[in-house]
Each structure stands twice: as structure tokens, then as C-alpha cells.
Design goal:
The complex is a heterodimer of chains A (1089) and B (214).
Chain A (H helix, E strand, L loop, with lengths): L1 H13 L4 H12 L11 H4 L3 H17 L1 H4 L7 E4 L11 E4 L2 E4 L10 E4 L2 E4 L2 H11 L3 H11 L3 H6 L12 H11 L3 H32 L4 H12 L10 E6 L13 H4 L3 E9 L5 E6 L2 E4 L2 E3 L4 E3 L10 H8 L1 H7 L11 H15 L4 H18 L1 H4 L3 H5 L4 H5 L8 H10 L4 H5 L8 H9 L8 H8 L19 H29 L2 H12 L6 H9 L2 H9 L4 H14 L3 H9 L2 H8 L5 H14 L3 H9 L2 H8 L12 H20 L3 H9 L2 H8 L5 H14 L3 H9 L2 H9 L4 H14 L3 H9 L3 H7 L6 H14 L3 H9 L2 H7 L6 H14 L3 H9 L3 H7 L5 H14 L3 H9 L2 H8 L5 H17 L3 H7 L3 H7 L6 H14 L3 H9 L2 H8 L5 H14 L5 H7 L3 H7 L5 H14 L3 H9 L2 H9 L4 H26 L1
Antiparallel strand pairs in A: 1-5, 2-3, 3-4, 4-5, 6-7, 7-8, 8-9, 10-11
Chain B lengths: L1 H19 L7 H17 L9 E2 H12 L4 H11 L6 E2 L1 H13 L2 H12 L6 E3 H8 L14 H14 L6 E3 H10 L14 H17 L1
Antiparallel strand pairs in B: 1-2, 3-4
Classes of the chains: A mainly alpha (1089), B mainly alpha (214).
Chain lengths: 1089, 214
């Protein structure tokens, strides 16, 4: 029955109806009501008296509020048969027998009102209003007659271009364009306003009638569903909720939207609900097309619903609930509920309009918004809008972009595409059109025969690995540049190029040297950077021929072939194909050729092909690395005029370096390059004055610098000097590789010092200003980070004001930059004066903010930096205010032990310098338990950090009591057997502190911590001695511990410590010995005294 | 005997001195060696045809055996390129001057030389027909094809498209020079008329070594 209504609505809508009437139909069809075949007699069936009154009052409003617009002369008159007599017209009109003309005329003299024998024609709203006044009690009749006679009043008022087509109208936009063009100026603006007013009227009318109809109209599954969804939003526990729950009795939804069993559907029943109001028993409700009423509820044994009606029929759920649940009735009004006042559809429509009015100046934006709204609507009310859908989408410019044409039959698919491909950024980021299916790829790979006829299939694939994202929104994406290009190719150019290339490949196959060379040269005239050509060569079997040519003796053919391979191997598919066809082996052999052109071409091609692991391995396994290293052997000549032979030598070396650079991405190749003696040759080339030589050389070096052997070599072969020198060259790529090499090498202290000695720190600090180039920035900040591990370098950076710049880089940077920046700040902050600098530059806040990140490397550095800053009480105040300690504390929960350890270390200075640290620590719910439990970690660094933190925490007696309760004593005691000096030191500190509470001393003794502690005194590390002596001193207050210590020969060790220059150690050791001695004395006294 | 040889040597030296002035790429000794080689080759020539230089047949033999050339037409044209005075003999001067370009010529010299070779009728242009003539054996004939010359014609078109910069359907020297400068591979676009690196090496070794031994 719903469908029937839908059909009727469709039929009606196919006629050109006014927006007003259109809207009414729309509403009707959603309500599942029958729509009469002919809408000629409007008011009879749907427009109540009130609606017409509404229209009338609105026209009046229009006149009074917008006199200017009201005076606008209609394009065509609104004409209808009136019941008014000529005699009724007043003095403003010229009356003669049966005709009446208004005295008010348009510019061209046409009277604005013309009446002859009951046929009336009106040209403006003010006249219209006059008529209504004249008509008095017949007002409504007149309006109805007028609207019935003028199916599209807007078109008549504003001209045919504004005729409302079904669905969304674009008149607004058209008008906007006109206003912009400015030739119609004022009038267009007037029209515009008029249109807006009319639309408002339309909308109000729609709301109005909807309100009316929803009171009397029958229910449909959709409305019930909407109501239920709405009610569900107000469900839940608590005072403010209006209902406890709303549940369907059945989860299964039939395709027609009903949930009732089919045999009940024939009774018009839609679904059954169990609604639990806050104040009464559950209500068992039947929703049927006739309305909703209570049923007999579920009978437990049979799980069958008693379908009998138990209450009167309500028109909808809300009314029923209002009646049955006083609580609901009371609270529902408080909610922002408004089901009648603003049903979803009208709300949306209003929104469209709102957007339009607000953004008159921005056509494009309102397009999008409008479009968006259309989508939302589509989602919300799929059934309602379907018939109007295709036209609605027409205005979207994106359709052209998408190359899709909207046709009635395809509306469903199209709508989905539009949805996924919606041109806003969000969708671009998430909802990309799914990548092509693998079979597409295969097709493009192997079926060359299909190729020319399937440009689009191939196209999609050509994008290859990097182009997963064909989305129309790509106007901002990187792919953009070649995209329009490609579309073009796929449509027009491809076939001709394809056939031409195929022909050339034929000549390559069947020609002698001369023909081959001609074909090769001709092939090079194609745009080999273009994917179409690259793949055409591959797909017509050209790659095989080109590689076969490399195996011949014809130098010219080899050169020609390599020149092509060099270009097309920039494509990842071609690279793989070349490797698959054994091209690498042949090219490696060619490296031995005496012909320099051949050498460098082969090397350059290898450089391109060896971009993936298998290829790099192949090069190595066939002796390519050794040969490539051999190419490097050319003495760079700095003189300006080189012979062509020398130039070729340099080119050979350059291409060799390029190939090695590609190969050096594999660890084994790095090793192979070193073994082949590549390092001194690279060092030699590093002195070259040519940037195009330096880039691959430094690139290789920085790539290899991940290996210890290279780092040492870079240091010993004095390459730092050249790297530093090249930092100052104006080539960002070169600068980046140099900085990156320094970054990797500066882990070593000698290298760091060398960088400083060669004045490398200043160019690094200068490069910080290149904040646009993120790669360069990452490398630079990395180098600064590692260099600032040396305190002398920090002083230099201070001098160059690098710190200030670094702080500025704490925000809006990619993570790889942030990690390094924060690392550098952490190192610099080891120097006390820098901590204040960081604070003054406002660095504390961004640092603390970064504590909430997820990047583990970043977190390690951030915690370190925050910890370093926290050693300054002024900084600590800020950190405390920003709740930084809590953030640090929560990082103890991080999965990564490095982060845990770093966080624990950072917590130490925080506790030390925070005001009221004890209270702060206690305020972290579960914080103490958390940190104590970290003593179960098996990571030494974590344990040491946690012990250090516990030593600080235990300074507060109350907290010490808490951690004691959490079992800190046995856990610390368990760690006592460690041999790690760092852990020993902090463990001893923690034990010393923890002895201060209750019977902890005794407990440590019982847990067996004393004996191992004594052994700590044998450690080489004096800081361990100090902490241990303090711990032993504390422990020695318990007699049993003294005995244990004595048994473990502590006295001799302690006596040595007493002689230490460290006063704290001296004192603790002496105190401990004294305690032991005192016990012995007491013992003797007891025995003998 | 020694006097004879010394007189002979003096004459040779004189000849070499006069030639070396006109030749860029050979030094005195090398010129001397090449004169000797020329004389040896002359000696091999049959007695009855004593002219003042190498005749066409002998020269073609050298091209074929020493430099691995096979195309008769090209070899003829190479002979014509060597034989500057068009007397059907390559004199010792022509021989050395020709070899200078042939073995060690600069790109410009080689372009000039190749153009001379390819300009079959010597009218200063390489015409469509000449190209066709030179390329007609460059493709393996496909028996399936309707017109066996189709491919050659196409090849000529391709070449014209690539090299005929002034679009007059023939290659002037300027066209040829420009195209080759852009793409060196096109130097021998219509057939090999220069020795490859290997045979150059072999020839030079033989020619220049012989004399050092003597």
C-alpha cells in the first residue's frame, strides 16, 4: 500500500508542480497516504482551512515587511477565474463594465491588475494583497483558485528559468550567477530576495501542513521506525531520561520495513514494542497503520504475543506514552524533542536554505553544502527522495569530474559513488574509492591484446603502488598533476601511441643494427616518463627485446636500449619486469665494457632498478657491487675545462655512486661496498665540486652510516670535514643527506667533536630556519640532537640561539621532526641555563602537551626532556600546573619499556622539585601501586628508574607507608642480587629510604636483602658505594641485620669506605660500623657484664 | 742496400712530412706506418693494374676483411668518400686522410663523412629514395605481410620524422648534422660506414706495431 502511494506520488511529481504543492506531495507520500490521481482540487483533500489562512497571512506579511520585493513586477501574470465583481474594486482601479485595470502600471504601461469577465491577471504581490483585502471572506477561495490555476507560481513570478523541476531547484544558484554578472543588477537582487521569501513561505507551508497531517494520517513502517529511533535516544537510567528502554519484540525486519509476522501484517500491524517507562510497568504496544495501542503483552510460556487490543488507538507512540506515563509526559516537553514541529526532512530543507542565504557570495560552497544535505537526506529517507534523486544531483560539478552521467536507470549506483566520492577532505582521507580488484591488475599485466581497448582498466592500474587512491577530491593530492593528463591519455592518445610503440618493437625484433638504432631513437621520442608509454613498451614485449639487445655485440643498440631502459625503469612495474627478465645480470656485465657511455648508462639503469630488495640482492650476487665500486675510481678534477673524456669519467663515477646508493639500502650490500674498497673511493668523490656527484655519494654514505664500520670510517677518513663543508651548499637535498649522515655518525663522541671543530654546528643551526622542507628539517634536527650530547656543542648551539628556534619547532611538525627536536631539547636541557631558556621561550607547555602522544620514540625523548626541565623549580611549577606529572605517571603504563624507564626517570626530578610533592603523588589514584608493580619488570633500565623514583617517593612518610603496604620491601629485596651497577645504586638508595618506615628494616633482613647489599661494596662504581653504605647504615639499626652484615665481612669493606673522600659515604660507613660495634659491645656486656 | 733503404726512408719521411700537415689525428710515425701499410697493400695488387693508388676492389676487400663491413653499396660509397679526386683510385694521401676520419675523426668530421656516404648521388641531399635504397635490407621480410616493403617505407618515414627538421622530405646536411648532434646514435643511421671500436683497435695495433718492430 505504501508502494502504491509512492507510485501515485511519482506520477504526480512528473508534472511540473510548484514547490509548495510538490512539498505537500512529498509529505503525503511519506505518510503512506493515498494521493489522488489529479491534484486539481487541492484543498479538498489535504489543505485544511488553516493552511490557506497561513498562505494568506503570509502574503500579507510579505507585503508589509518587504515592500520593495512586493512591488516587483511578475514576468508573467498570475491568472485565475475570480469570483470578485468589478464593482468591488476601489478608486485605484479603472472600472468599465466587466473589465478592471489597475491605475498602477508597470514600466511599459501594462496595468498590474487586469480583470475581464472573471478572468483576472495580477502582476505584483501588492496587487495580490489588494485582491485579498477586497475578497474579504472569500480570501481563501481566491487563494486556492489562484494556486490551482498557477501550477508553478515561482516560474511566473520570476520567469520561466525559475520553473521548479522536481526535486532540488537550482534557481537560487542561477540567480546568484546573474547577480554576479551584474548586468541585471538591482532587479536580479530583488528577484533573489523574492525567491528566498517564496521559499520560506513554501517551507512554512510545508511544516504547517505536515503538522496537520501527522495528526490524522496513518502510520507507516518508516514513521514508526523513526519514532522508535527517536525515542531510543531518550532512553536510559536516571532522572532526566524519559524512558528506561524501547525494544522491538522481533529483531527481524521484513523487506517492507515491518517486523510483525506476515499473518499479522495483513491486519495492518507493523511491529510490536516493549517500552519501559520510568514510572509504570512495561507497556506492550502494537504499532499498526491505524495507530498504536496496547496489546496483551507477551505470554511467557509460549513466547507469543497476545495481539488483542487492550487500549484505545493513539495516533502515534508519543501520544500513547504521554497518556500512559505521566513522567514521560512531563519530561518529554523539556527535551529538545520537537517531533511535530520539525520532522527531519523539513529540518534539512530549512538547513539548505539557510546555507544558501548565508553564503550567497560563495556559490561553490553552497553547492557543496547543498549536495551534502542531499546526501544526508538520502540516507535518512531513502524511500522518500528516490523519485527526485537524479535531477537533484545534477547541479553537482563533481559529476563531470567523475565522468559519470546521471541517468535515471543508474541512479542507485550513482548515488553511492557520489557518496563515497564526495569532494570534501574528510572523505578524501578516509572513504576512498576502494582500490581496484587484483584481477584488474592481472589483466593489465598479461593481456596485452586487451590493452588498447581497455584503457580505463589499465589506467587504474598504471597508478601502481602509489596510486591507491583515485578519488575525485584529489585536487589537493599529489597525484594531481598527472591525473588530468592520464584521463586524457586513456581517452584519446593511448591507442595511437600504443600502436606506434608496437610497430617500433616489431622493427626492433626484425631489424638489423641500422633499423634497430632507428627504431630505438624513434622510441625515445615518446614521452618515456609517461606511464602509458612505459607500460605499452612492456606490454607489447618491448622489454624483452630491449634486454636481449643488451646481450648483443652492437654497442649502438646497447646504448640505445639502455637509454630507453634508463627512463622507463623509473616505473616500479618495469623495474620488476627488468629484474624478472634477467636484465640486471646483463647490465652488471656491461659495467665491464670499455665503452664509457655503456658503463654509465648501465649503472644509471641499475640505480633505477635496484629500488627493491630482490633486485639489490641480484646485483650483489652477480658481482655488481664490486664493479660499481670500480666505477667510482676517477680522480675528481676541479679544473674548469675538462675534456669530454674526463667528463665521461666523472659521469661514470656519478652513475656508479647512484647505483651504489640504491644498492646501499640493503645491509649486506653495505658490507659488500666496504669490502670492495668503496669507502676510500667515496671519500675521494666527496671532495668533488659537483653537486650532482655529491648527492649520490653523500646519499650512499648516510645510508651506510647505519653501520658501525662506516661510522668509524667516516670519522677516520676525515669525511666529516667534507660533510660539514657541504652542509653550507645551497642544495637542500645535499644538505639533507649531509645532515642525515652527521645525525647517524654523531652518536660517537669523537665525531661530535669533529663536527664542532670543523664549524659544522653553525650551518646546522642555520638550517633550522628551513622549516618548510620537512625532510631536511628532520635530518638537521637529528644532527643537532646527536651533536648536543656533547656539552661543548650545547654551548655552541646556545651561542647560535638554536634553542629558541628548536622550541619554536615543537608545534605543527611531523613526528620525525618532533622526535629529533625534543631529543635535542632534552640534551640541551642538561645544561642548567638552557632550562631557563626553554621556559622563557614557552617550551614547557608544548613539551608537556607532547606527553599525550603515541609515538614511542617521541615519548622517550619527551619524557627525558620534561625530566631535564623539571630539575629547575620554576619549570617544575609550570609542569605541575599543566598536570605534567600525571601525564608522566600514566606513561608508566606504556607497553614500551623504554618509555616506562624514561618516564620513571623523569618522575624523579618532578617529585624532588614539586611543591607538596607527597600530596601530589598521593592524588594519583592507583599511582603508587602502579609504580611499585613496575618492580616486576625484567628490564634493567626500567627497574633502575623505578627504584630511583621510589627513593624519591619514600621521602614522604605517608607515601612510604602506602608503598610498604603495596609490598615494596620484598620486591626491592628480590632485586638485591643484581650485578648491574646502575640498578644497584638506585636500588640501594630505595632500600635506604624505605628503611625509614615501621619494621621495614627487619623485613629487608628477613627477605635476605642484606647479604647481597654487602657485596655491592666490592663494586667498582663509587656511587654504588655511597648508596650502599647509606642503605647498610639504615639496615644496621636492626641487630639481626648487623649480625648478617658481620657474617658477610662487611666491617673490613666499610673501614675502607670510612677512609673515602666522599663525606656522605664516610659518614654512612662509619655510622654502620658504629652500629655493629655497639651491638657487639652490648652483646659482650650482656654476656659478661 | 743500406743506401737504397736510407734514400727510400728519406723519401718516405718527406712524403710523411707533407701528409702529416694535412692530417689532424696521426703523428709523424703513425703516418709513416700507414704509408708503409699502403705500400704493402699496393704491392699485393696485381701487377697489370698499376695505377697510383688502391682500386675499388682492393679497397673493398680491406673494408670487408679488416673492418667487417658487408654492405656492398655502403662499401662503394665509402670508397667514393675516400676517393676525393674521383679517379677511382685511393692515393696514399687520400688513404691517410680518409683513415684519419675513419679511425679517429671527431664527431663533426664523422658527420660530414657519413653524410657523404649516404648521399648516394652526391646532390647534397639524402632523398627519400636514397634512404629506401639504403634501408631496404634492414628488416627481415615477413612473409605474411602484403607489401614486403611496407616496413621499410615506414622506417623511412620514421627517420624523416626524426631528422628532417625543415620538412622538405629529404635530409640536407644541416638536417643530418642537427639530428646527429642531438642523438649521436643516428650518425650511422642508414648503415654502418664506420669501423667499430674493436676493429679500430685491432687495425691500429697491427698497423702501428708492425713499424715499431721494423
Amino acid at each position: 500500500m505504501r508502494e502504491e502511494a509512492q507510485c501515485a506520488a511519482n506520477r504526480v511529481l512528473e508534472n511540473n508542480t510548484s514547490p509548495v504543492i510538490n512539498g505537500v506531495y512529498r509529505v503525503l507520500s511519506t505518510r503512506g497516504n493515498k494521493v489522488p490521481e489529479q491534484p486539481a482540487k487541492l484543498g479538498a483533500w489535504c489543505f485544511g482551512e488553516t493552511s490557506w489562512t497561513f498562505v494568506v497571512s503570509d502574503i500579507k506579511k510579505l507585503i508589509t515587511r518587504h515592500p520593495q520585493e512586493a512591488a516587483l513586477v511578475f514576468k508573467e501574470p498570475l491568472g485565475w477565474t475570480t469570483t470578485l465583481e468589478p464593482s468591488a474594486f476601489g478608486p485605484d482601479y479603472e472600472i468599465s463594465k466587466s473589465t478592471v485595470n489597475s491605475k498602477e502600471t508597470a514600466k511599459d504601461g501594462q496595468p498590474l491588475l487586469h480583470l475581464s469577465s472573471h478572468a483576472i491577471q495580477v502582476y505584483s504581490f501588492s496587487q495580490l494583497s489588494n485582491i485579498l483585502q477586497l475578497a474579504q471572506d472569500k480570501k481563501l477561495k481566491e487563494v486556492r483558485a489562484c494556486l490551482e490555476a498557477n501550477r508553478d507560481p515561482v516560474a511566473k513570478i520570476l520567469g520561466p528559468s525559475f520553473a521548479t523541476v522536481e526535486g532540488e531547484d537550482t534557481s537560487m544558484l542561477r540567480l546568484l550567477d546573474k547577480v554576479k554578472e551584474d548586468d541585471e543588477g538591482h532587479e536580479a537582487e530583488l528577484k533573489m530576495k523574492m525567491l528566498l521569501l517564496l521559499q520560506q513561505l513554501d517551507m512554512q507551508l510545508l511544516n504547517n501542513s505536515l503538522k496537520q497531517m501527522s495528526q490524522e494520517v496513518r502510520l507507516s513502517p518508516v514513521t514508526v521506525k523513526n519514532d522508535v529511533e527517536l525515542l531510543k535516544r531518550f532512553c536510559g537510567e536516571g532522572e532526566k531520561m524519559v524512558l528506561k528502554s524501547v525494544e522491538y519484540t522481533s529483531d527481524y525486519e521484513f523487506s517492507n520495513g515491518c517486523r510483525a509476522a506476515p499473518w499479522r501484517q495483513v491486519h495492518g500491524e507493523i511491529c510490536y514494542l516493549v517500552i519501559k517507562p520510568v514510572d509504570t510497568d512495561p507497556l506492550y504496544i502494537t504499532c499498526s497503520t491505524a495507530g498504536v495501542y496496547l496489546n496483551g503483552g507477551a505470554e511467557k510460556e509460549r513466547e507469543e504475543i497476545d495481539y488483542e487490543r487492550k487500549s484505545e488507538v493513539y495516533k502515534d507512540l508519543v501520544t500513547l506514552l504521554k497518556d500512559k506515563s505521566p513522567h514521560f509526559a512531563e519530561n518529554i516537553t523539556k527535551q529538545d524533542f520537537a517531533i511535530y514541529e520539525e520532522p527531519p526532512s523539513t529540518q534539512k530543507n530549512q538547513h539548505v536554505e539557510l546555507v544558501d542565504t548565508e553564503e550567497q557570495g560563495q556559490t561553490q560552497r553552497s553547492y557543496e553544502n547543498q549536495e551534502k544535505n542531499v546526501h544526508e537526506k538520502m540516507r535518512q529517507q531513502p524511500t522518500q527522495n528516490k523519485p527526485t534523486l537524479p535531477k537533484k544531483l545534477e547541479p553537482s560539478l563533481k559529476w563531470k569530474y567523475l565522468n559519470l552521467t546521471s541517468s535515471q536507470g543508474e541512479k542507485n549506483e550513482n548515488s553511492t559513488i557520489i557518496k563515497t566520492g564526495k569532494p570534501d577532505k574528510e572523505t578524501a582521507a578516509k572513504g576512498r574509492i576502494p582500490p581496484r580488484s587484483p584481477e584488474f591488475k592481472n589483466k593489465a599485466h598479461f593481456s596485452s591484446a586487451h590493452l588498447p581497448r581497455r584503457p580505463s582498466a589499465r589506467k587504474t592500474k598504471t597508478a601502481g603502488a602509489r596510486d591507491e587512491d583515485f578519488s575525485e577530491s584529489s585536487s589537493e593530492s599529489e597525484e594531481d598533476e598527472d591525473q588530468p593528463d592520464r584521463c586524457q591519455e586513456s581517452n584519446t592518445d593511448l591507442p595511437s601511441e600504443y600502436w606506434q610503440i608496437q610497430k617500433l618493437v616489431k622493427y626492433l625484433k626484425g631489424g638489423n643494427q641500422t633499423a634497430t638504432v632507428i627504431a630505438l631513437c624513434s622510441m625515445r621520442d615518446f614521452n618515456l616518463a609517461q606511464e602509458t608509454c612505459q607500460l605499452a613498451i612492456k606490454n607489447v614485449g618491448g622489454l624483452d627485446v630491449l634486454i636481449n639487445l643488451l646481450d648483443t655485440d652492437e654497442i649502438k643498440c646497447k646504448i640505445g636500449s639502455l637509454k630507453i631502459l634508463k627512463e622507463i625503469s623509473r616505473n616500479s612495474q618495469i623495474r620488476r619486469a627488468i629484474a624478472d627478465l634477467g636484465g640486471l645480470q646483463t647490465m652488471v656485465k656491461i659495467l665491464d665494457s670499455p665503452d664509457k657511455d655503456l658503463k654509465f648508462l648501465a649503472a644509471e639503469t641499475i640505480a633505477n632498478v635496484a629500488k627493491f630488495r630482490r633486485a639489490r640482492r641480484t646485483v650483489r650476487q652477480h658481482g655488481g657491487i664490486k664493479r660499481l665500486v670500480g666505477l667510482l675510481d676517477c680522480v675528481p678534477d676541479n679544473s674548469a675545462n675538462l675534456t669530454s673524456e674526463q667528463e665521461k669519467d666523472i659521469e661514470v663515477a656519478r652513475c656508479g655512486a647512484l647505483a651504489l646508493w640504491s644498492c646501499s639500502k640493503s645491509t649486506r650490500n653495505k658490507e659488500a661496498i666496504r669490502k670492495a674498497g668503496g669507502i676510500p673511493l667515496l671519500a675521494q668523490l666527496l671532495k668533488s665540486p659537483h653537486e650532482n656527484m655529491l648527492i649520490p655519494v653523500v646519499g650512499t654514505l648516510q645510508e651506510c652510516a647505519s653501520e658501525q664500520s662506516y661510522r668509524i670510517a667516516i670519522q677516520t677518513e676525515d669525511m666529516i670535514k667534507d660533510l660539514v663543508k657541504n652542509l653550507s651548499r645551497e642544495n637542500p637535498e645535499l644538505q639533507m643527506h649531509c645532515a642525515s649522515a652527521i645525525f647517524k655518525c654523531a652518536e660517537d663522541i669523537v665525531t661530535r667533536d669533529l663536527v664542532r671543530q670543523y664549524d659544522g654546528l653553525k650551518p646546522l643551526a642555520t638550517l633550522l630556519s628551513m622549516s618548510e622542507n620537512k625532510q631536511l628539517l628532520a635530518a638537521t634536527t637529528g644532527a643537532i640532537w646527536k651533536c648536543s650530547i656533547s656539552i661543548e656543542n650545547v654551548a655552541k648551539f646556545q651561542e647560535y640561539k638554536a634553542l629558541e628556534t628548536l622550541v619554536g619547532l615543537l608545534t605543527d611538525q611531523p613526528e620525525e621532526v618532533l622526535v629529533n627536536v625534543v631529543g635535542a631539547l632534552g640534551e640541551c636541557a642538561q645544561e642548567p641555563s638552557n632550562r631557563a631558556v626553554i621556559r622563557r621561550c614557552g617550551g614547557i607547555q608544548p613539551l608537556v602537551n607532547l606527553l599525550t602522544g603515541t609515538n614511542q620514540a617521541l615519548l622517550v625523548n619527551v619524557t627525558k626532556a620534561v625530566g631535564a626541565c623539571a630539575t629547575e623549580p620554576d619549570n617544575m611549577a609550570i609542569i605541575d600546573r599543566l598536570d605534567g606529572v600525571r601525564l608522566l605517571w600514566s606513561l608508566l603504563k606504556n607497553q614500551n619499556p623504554d618509555v616506562q624507564a624514561s618516564a620513571a626517570w623523569a618522575i624523579c626530578p618532578c617529585i624532588e622539585n614539586a611543591k607538596d610533592a607527597g600530596e601530589m603523588v598521593r592524588s594519583f589514584v592507583g599511582g603508587l601501586e602502579l609504580i611499585v608493580n613496575l618492580l616486576k619488570s625484567d628490564n634493567k633500565e626500567v627497574l633502575a628508574g623505578v627504584c630511583a623514583a621510589i627513593a624519591k617517593i619514600a621521602k614522604d612518610e605517608e607515601n612510604l607507608a602506602v608503598i610498604t603496604d603495596h609490598g615494596v620491601v620484598p620486591m626491592l629485596a628480590k632485586l638485591a642480587s643484581t650485578t648491574d651497577d646502575k640498578l644497584r645504586r638506585h636500588l640501594a638508595e630505595a632500600i635506604a629510604r624505605c628503611c625509614m618506615w615501621g619494621s621495614n628494616r627487619v623485613s629487608f633482613g628477613e627477605a635476605g636483602a642484606v647479604a647481597p647489599l654487602v657485596q655491592y661494596l666490592n663494586s667498582q662504581d663509587t656511587s654504588v658505594h655511597r648508596a650502599t653504605a647509606q642503605a647498610l647504615f639504615q639496615l644496621s639499626r636492626d641487630p639481626n641485620n648487623c649480625i648478617t652484615m658481620h657474617e658477610n665481612a662487611v666491617v673490613k669493606l666499610l673501614l675502607d669506605m670510612v677512609g673515602s673522600t666522599d663525606e656522605v659515604l664516610q659518614e654512612a660507613a662509619a655510622g654502620c660500623v658504629a652500629n655493629i660495634r655497639r651491638l657487639a659491645l652490648a652483646n659482650e656486656k650482656a654476656r659478661y657484664g | 742496400m743500406s743506401h737504397m733503404s736510407s734514400v727510400n726512408a728519406k723519401n718516405l719521411q718527406k712524403l710523411a712530412d707533407s701528409i702529416v700537415k694535412h692530417v689532424k689525428h696521426f703523428n709523424n710515425t703513425e703516418v709513416l706506418c700507414l704509408i708503409k701499410l699502403f705500400n704493402v697493400l699496393m704491392g699485393e695488387q696485381s701487377e697489370h693494374r698499376v695505377g697510383n693508388g688502391l682500386d675499388r676492389g682492393k679497397f673493398r676487400n680491406i673494408l670487408h676483411n679488416t673492418f667487417g663491413m658487408t654492405d656492398d653499396m655502403i662499401m662503394d660509397r665509402v670508397f667514393r668518400a675516400f676517393d676525393k679526386d674521383n679517379d677511382s683510385n685511393v692515393s696514399v694521401k687520400e688513404w691517410i686522410e680518409g683513415l684519419s676520419v675513419f679511425l679517429r675523426g671527431t664527431l663533426d668530421e664523422k658527420i660530414k663523412y657519413c653524410f657523404e656516404v649516404y648521399d648516394l648521388n652526391g646532390d647534397g641531399y639524402i632523398s627519400r629514395e636514397e634512404m629506401f635504397h639504403m634501408l631496404k635490407n634492414s628488416l627481415i621480410k615477413q612473409p605474411t605481410e602484403e607489401d614486403p616493403d611496407e616496413g621499410i617505407k615506414d622506417l623511412v618515414e620514421i627517420t624523416l620524422k626524426k631528422m628532417d627538421h625543415d620538412h622538405d622530405s629529404r635530409l640536407s646536411y644541416a638536417d643530418f648534422e642537427k639530428a646527429v648532434k642531438e642523438e649521436n646514435l643516428l650518425l650511422e643511421a642508414f648503415g654502418a660506414c664506420l669501423p667499430d671500436a674493436k676493429s679500430i683497435l685491432a687495425f691500429e695495433r697491427q698497423a702501428f706495431q708492425d713499424t715499431t718492430e721494423n
